[in-house]
Here is the input.
Amino acid sequence: MPEIRRALPTDREAIWDIIGPVIRAGETYTYDADWAKDDALAYWMGDDKHTYVALEGGQLLGTYYLRTNQMGGGRHVCNCGYMTAEAARGKGIAGAMCEQSQTVARELGYKAMQFNFVVSTNVGAVRLWQKLGFTIVGTLPKAFEHPTEGFVDAHIMYKWLADRD
Here is the structure.
């Protein structure tokens, strides 16, 4: 299992090495493929987020952020974004980060976690989130323009985290 800890300012370059290629590929997130490095890092590590990194053998293999999804009456629901290094895919890093993020979310007082926009062609992520107890609660038809697949669906996925209502 990877070590997962809060991101430090000194992790910026290693985080960029992970999120940069994912952003540039344009296949799984709605970020502009030409998003500037400093702007992307400012977003990923913004003050409104709790940003974490996953490491094995001192090598940063994944990162995620956790933030409040909505204000007011929706502030009990958090949102996360996860990315793993290409070389780390299929090694359980994303699953470990998701499980840890649910623990962090509960500690921070969140009652639920929602993924706002899971691209349907990202079948590995959809399968993993379902395995970890998330349900597809809505599908947005042709909401994402995939660079090779054209217009594809996006799912809203949700999990209640609280032990009691």
Summary: Helices lie at 12-25, 37-44, 93-107, 123-131. The mean pLDDT is 96.
